[in-house]
Each structure stands twice: as structure tokens, then as C-alpha cells.
Design goal:
Elements lengths: L2 H34 L5 H12 L2 H11 L3 H26 L1 H21 L9 H19 L19 H49 L3 H5 L52 E6 L5 E4 H6 L3 E8 L10 E10 H8 L7 E6 L4 E5 H4 L6 E6 L2 E2 L9 E3 L13 E7 L22 E6 L9 E10 L5 E8 L5 E2 L1 E2 L9 E9 L2 E11 L21 E7 L1
Parallel strand pairs: 1-10
Antiparallel strand pairs: 1-2, 3-4, 4-7, 5-6, 5-10, 7-8, 7-9, 11-12, 12-16, 13-14, 13-17, 15-16, 17-18
The structure holds the ligand Nc1nc2c(c(=O)[nH]1)N[C@H]1C(S)=C(S)[C@@H](COP(=O)(O)O)O[C@H]1N2 and molybdenum atom.
């Protein structure tokens, strides 16, 4: 065994020790974070900082590639990166333990700094990274303390001019003893690695599980929502064409798109929840969840849309919301002159900025507590969120909302504005072809082309379809509840064999027709006609 290969071998053992130490650190930190809040766990805290600081295009890329799993992808990616670093530091630690310990200390410091700078973090947020760092260091130290190389041969044979029988036997016995000892040490080392990885993983998974159990699912299940003082108008017969592949008029909660910056879903206890309406108001107000439920509740169907929705995309959904009219609360708080922006602030520090005038112009802007007949799902903002017809979510739909702060657009930029998105976000008129899509199973003859169109709070006046760039043909609009929801449309197409291009465009109730010109989703929403290619046989 040469020195070089021995050190390569010990380097590999060191890498294993590093990974074992990192697993212990991350896992034990998750367990501590059960007490201090899951957002203080180092992986979540550090990735939270990453999410807040990645450039807009990267965020869009992540949404495009990973969709609603973008956050899971980030966490897994970080874990893999961390494992690589840990392996490197472990390999160094075999030579010089302080270097390895310094590596762990570095990660602990980064974790502490990230956790302490998250919105609403107290000093206890430092605990998970500190405990994790200490335990990780201990594991690394214990693992690399023992010899990590097989012993050098006891006798160097090449020096023997005469190799006697007896000497040989002694050598072999010594070598065998050394080998046994080494095998035993190696067994203990690998056992230690497996133990640390196993215990660390269990602690991590257990921590996540306990955090979820400590969450607000039970509190949510206990909520009894009062009946609305102003029920939603019934959905007219025929609003839902009930065609296969066509998005249903009402999006079920389980299928409702989810977009937010939260790596772990905020768990906001309705019993301790308070909403502060403050800033530039004459009369600041604080409301509890019970206060909110005691007020007259309004129920409305409103279609929510994400500014990041590509033409033809599905970051849009329609639900029946139950809540309190924000306008009434603002009337009581009495905004001061010049307070032209209402900043909704979430329990995790995220903000959106909504024009005060929009909230007070008579539309059904709600502080919502219910969604499709249930308390808000936790990932959709339980216990309370904002819903404002006609504005993209990023400027209006604050989930887990705890503050409405009256300020001005000149004085405050909400979360997405410094990240390159427009301060104002009225929803652009859009339309989508849901069926047919793709190439299979279509034969010549009448084919129903159908989809949805939306121009929230303006309403849709007309939808048109064209085939292969030909003349625009009027589609039939299904009835709808109000101008605040999408509308389904359909068109009978006398399809002929071959490849065809279908396009759709909508005209809103003010008479504006969707422009053909394609623009990116940034900074204020995509434009262009949804186009699908189909094959008819
Ligand atoms: N607290 C919080 N609220 C938020 C966001 C967020 O990142 N954090 N994202 C907004 C965006 S961009 C959209 S499109 C809507 C999406 O609401 P949904 O997840 O219930 O569909 O929530 C909005 N509310
Ligand atoms: Mo969004």
C-alpha cells in the first residue's frame, strides 16, 4: 500500500465523515426547529434568503422547469450541494481537524445569519444552526479521531537479505493482527458513519413531521364559518360546459395553482392572529379572527391569476371566496390624503402593494376566510388572505396577511417591485384554448374547440377563433356569474384532414381586443394569442 493510495483512501473515509457530520447537523437542527419554528431551520432559512435574492429570470426559469415543485427542487439542490461541501471538508479534516471544524463553523454561521434575518425572527432562531453545528462538529471529531488508514507493513521485506522461515511467520502473524485491528477499526468507523447518517435523517424527518403536527391543521378543522350576509349569486346554468380537458368553471381547492415565496407553508394560529390596519390612517384598527367572522361576510366568485402565467398557461383559477369587504375596513380606518397604496404584509414578511383607490372603488375586494365552502386551505393563506378582482396576485392577493399598511407608492416598494416587476398589476385580457390540444384522436368533421377567457372586473365581450391564420370567427360565450370571473367559450369547427393551427383572442367589455404581439410575463403580464397545433386524420 503506497502512501498516496492510503491517503486517497483516508480522504474517502474523511468525505464519509463529513457527510455524516452534515447529516447530523441538518437533522438535529430540524428537530430544534420544531420548537423555534421551521423557518429557523438552516436549510429553510438559507434557501429563504436565496428565494428572496435570486434574479427574476431565475425565479421564472424555476417556475417553468419545476412548476409548483420549484421549492422542493431548491431544497434538494441545496442538500446535494451541502453534501458535496461536507465531503470536501471531511476529506480535509482527516489531515487537519481544525480545517473541518472551521468548515462546519462557517456553515453554522451562515445558517444563524440567515435564520436571524428572516422576517419576524427572534434570537431563538439562531438555536437550530448552533445546535446542529455543535453536534455536527462532535460527530466529525469522533469519526476522524481514530486512524483512517491501514497500518503500514510492520517489516519492510526489501531490507531482508536472508528471509528466514521464522521471521516470515512472525511477520505474517503481526500483519494478520494489524489487519484484524484495522478491519475492526474500519468496521467501527463505517458503523459510526451509518449511525450518524441514520440518526440525523431520522431527526430531520421526525422534526419535519413534528413541525407539521404542531401546525394549524387542527385549528383549521375546528373553524366553523358563518353563513354569508351577502351570498354569491348562483352560477348560471350552462356556465360550465363540462367538456373533457376544459378547465371547470369552479377550480377545486386541491387543483388550485399555488404560487408564493414560502419554503415552508406559514402556520398562522387563528386564535392569536391579528390584523393591524395602520400607517397613514386617522384611526388604526386591530382585528382578531373572531372580530372578522363577527362582521357581515360577503361571498363572491373571483378568478385569481398570476402575472407569471404564460400565454396558454394554467397559473389561474376561479374560486368562491368568503370574506369581509376591505373597503368597509378602510372606511373605518380613514386613510389620510396621499395614502394611495395599501401594503398587505404576510406573516412571513412578504408584501404586496394595492392601489387604495382600487380597494375603495366598489369592487368586491375581500379579506377572505373561506374558499369554495371551506376555511382557506393553509397553503392558500389560512386563516386570512386578500382577494382583489382585476389585479394579479403579486400586487393584491396577500396570503397569511397580518397587516394592511396605508402608505404611498412613492414611499414603499412591495416585494416584487425592486425585483423588476411593475408596481401596478391590472390583469390583462387573455384567452386560452383547452381543447383540442395535441395530436391524437381527432378525425375530420365537426370538432368542438373550447377554452376560457378572462378580463377580471372589465368582463369579456367576445371571443374569436381562427384556423391557419384565416378570418376570425366568433365563438359562443357561456354565461358567467360576473365580470370578475373567467368565462368559458366554445366554437364548432368543421375540421378537415391535415395539420392546423388554432388561435384565440378575446375582447373585453371596454372594447379592447387582445394584441397579437407577444410579450414576456415580466414586468406586468404576458400578451399574445394562445396558439395550438392539431392534427386531423
Ligand atoms: N404571503 C404571500 N402571499 C402571496 C404570495 C407570496 O409569495 N406570499 N404570492 C402571490 C402571488 S404571486 C399569487 S399569483 C397568489 C397566488 O395565490 P394562490 O397560491 O392561492 O393561488 O398569491 C399571492 N400571495
Ligand atoms: Mo403570481
Amino acid at each position: 500500500m503506497t502512501t498516496q493510495s492510503a491517503s486517497r483512501k483516508s480522504g474517502r473515509f474523511g468525505a464519509l465523515a463529513g457527510i455524516a457530520a452534515a447529516t447530523t447537523a441538518i437533522g438535529s437542527a430540524e428537530l430544534v426547529a420544531v420548537v423555534t419554528g421551521s423557518r429557523s431551520a438552516p436549510l429553510v432559512a438559507v434557501d429563504g434568503v436565496v428565494v428572496d435574492h435570486v434574479p427574476g429570470p431565475v425565479k421564472q426559469f424555476a417556475i417553468d422547469v419545476f412548476g409548483v415543485h420549484d421549492k422542493l427542487a431548491l431544497l434538494v439542490g441545496t442538500a446535494v450541494l451541502l453534501a458535496a461541501f461536507a465531503a470536501g471538508f471531511g476529506a480535509l479534516a482527516v489531515r487537519r481537524l481544525p480545517v473541518g471544524l472551521a468548515g462546519i463553523a462557517l456553515f453554522a454561521v451562515v445558517g444563524v445569519a440567515a435564520a436571524l434575518t428572516r422576517a419576524g425572527a427572534g434570537p431563538a432562531a439562531a438555536a437550530p444552526s448552533l445546535v446542529g453545528g455543535l453536534l455536527g462538529a462532535a460527530v466529525l471529531w469522533l469519526l476522524v479521531a481514530g486512524p483512517l488508514e491501514p497500518p503500514a507493513p510492520t517489516v519492510d521485506r526489501t531490507d531482508h537479505t536472508v528471509a528466514g522461515q521464522g521471521d516470515d511467520a512472525v511477520d505474517r502473524a503481526a500483519a494478520a493482527r494489524d489487519g484484524d485491528e484495522w478491519r475492526e477499526q474500519r468496521r467501527r468507523f463505517l458503523g459510526g458513519v451509518a449511525g450518524a447518517v441514520g440518526v440525523g435523517t431520522l431527526a430531520g424527518l421526525g422534526g419535519r413531521w413534528l413541525s407539521a403536527r404542531r401546525g394549524v391543521a387542527q385549528a383549521r378543522a375546528a373553524v366553523r364559518l358563518p353563513a354569508p350576509a351577502s351570498p354569491a349569486p348562483p352560477v348560471p346554468v350552462g356556465a360550465d360546459l363540462s367538456l373533457p380537458r376544459l378547465a371547470p368553471y369552479t377550480t377545486p381547492n386541491a387543483g388550485f395553482y399555488r404560487i408564493d415565496t414560502a419554503l415552508v407553508v406559514p402556520q398562522v394560529d387563528p386564535d392569536t392572529w391579528r390584523l393591524r390596519i395602520h400607517g397613514r390612517v386617522r384611526r388604526p384598527i386591530t382585528l382578531s379572527y373572531a372580530d372578522l367572522l363577527a362582521r357581515p361576510l360577503v361571498e363572491r366568485d373571483v378568478t385569481l391569476a398570476c402575472v407569471s402565467n404564460e400565454v396558454g398557461g394554467d397559473l389561474i383559477g376561479n374560486a368562491r371566496w368568503l370574506g369581509v369587504r376591505i373597503a368597509d375596513l378602510l372606511d373605518e380606518a380613514q386613510p389620510l390624503d396621499g395614502a394611495d397604496q395599501v401594503v398587505g404584509r404576510s406573516s412571513d414578511g412578504w408584501t404586496c402593494g394595492t392601489p387604495t383607490a382600487v380597494l375603495r372603488d366598489g369592487r368586491d375586494a375581500l379579506l377572505a376566510v373561506g374558499m369554495n365552502g371551506e376555511p382557506l386551505p393553509i397553503e392558500h393563506g389560512f386563516p386570512v388572505r386578500m382577494v382583489v378582482p382585476g389585479l394579479y396576485g403579486y400586487v393584491s392577493a396577500c396570503k397569511w396577511v397580518v397587516e394592511l399598511e396605508l402608505t404611498s407608492f412613492a414611499d414603499f416598494d412591495a416585494y416584487w417591485v425592486p425585483r423588476g416587476w411593475s408596481a401596478r398589476g391590472p390583469i390583462k385580457t387573455q384567452s386560452r384554448i383547452d381543447t383540442p390540444r395535441g395530436r391524437g384522436g381527432l378525425t375530420a368533421g365537426p370538432v368542438t374547440v373550447a377554452g376560457v377567457a378572462w378580463a377580471q372586473h372589465r368582463g369579456i365581450r367576445a371571443v374569436e377563433v381562427r384556423v391557419d391564420g384565416g378570418p376570425w370567427q366568433p365563438a359562443t360565450l357561456a354565461p358567467t356569474v360576473s365580470i370578475d370571473t373567467w368565462v368559458q367559450w366554445s366554437w364548432r369547427w368543421p375540421a378537415t384532414p391535415g395539420e392546423h393551427t388554432l388561435q384565440v383572442r378575446a375582447t373585453d367589455a371596454t372594447g379592447d381586443t387582445q394584441p397579437e404581439h407577444r410579450t414576456d410575463v415580466a414586468p406586468d403580464g404576458a400578451t399574445g394569442h394562445h396558439t395550438v397545433r392539431v392534427t386531423i386524420t
